[in-house]
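Each record in this resource describes a single protein on a pair of labelled lines. An example record follows, reproduced without changes.
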Amino acid sequence: MFIGLGLSLTRLRGGAAFTPASLFANGEAGAWYNPDSDTVAGALPDISGNGFNLAQATGGNQPSVGSDGSAYFVGLDGNDFMTASASISQTSGTIALAFRPGAVVYQSGRRCILSFSDTGTANNWLEVGLDIERRLYVEFNSGGALTTHRTTSAFEPGSDYSAIIVYDGADVFVSINGQQDPIIETFASGAGGWFGDVSGGDTLTLGAANSSAGVSRHFTGRIYSALFVETEAF
C-alpha cells in the first residue's frame, strides 16, 4: 500500500500487497484522502466511498495543492485546515498518515494533523499530531477523562514520514516508517478511547485541532495522505 509519496505500507494480513480501497470493500466505516492531479484548493474528497469529503470555503484557510514530482500533497501554512461532518462510533481501528512536518518552531506548542471532535461540547475529542518535542501524540478526551500517549522518535522538519496508529480497544500501537515506535509516556485521567468516545455533533478536521473552544494547534507542512478505518488493519 502506498499512501502518497511512495511511502510503503505493504504489510497487511499475511504481507500481501493491497490497495487502500480493499480496507473499505465490505462497507467498513472510515475515510481515505489522497490528493492527486484533480485535487483543487479547499476540497479533498473521501475516496473510501463513505462520503466524508473535506472542504474549506474560506480562502485564507485553504491548504494549497502541490506535487514534489512523485506525489501530490496538501500544503498547510499554519492557518489552513479542512473539515467534514462525520458521525462515527468506532471503538477500535487504524489511522495511517503520510506527511512532512514544516520548519515551524514546535516550542510554540502542539501541531495537530488529524482530529475528530464534538465542537458543540467541551472536552470531547480524538487527536493525532506532533507535540512540543516533535514526538507523535495520540490523545483521547471523553468528557474530561483525558488520556495522552507519546511515542519515542522525534520528527525532523523537512523529512517525510509514514505513521500508523492502531488501537485495539485497550492499547495504542504506533509504527513510524515501518518500524514500531514504542509509547514512552501515557498521561491518563480516564480509560482512553477512540472515535466512539466523541458524542454529539461530530467534526473531522485535517490540519488542526477543532473543539468547542475553536480551531487551534494548526499543523504546518505537507500531508500526502490520511486514512482511518474501523479495522485493525496493519
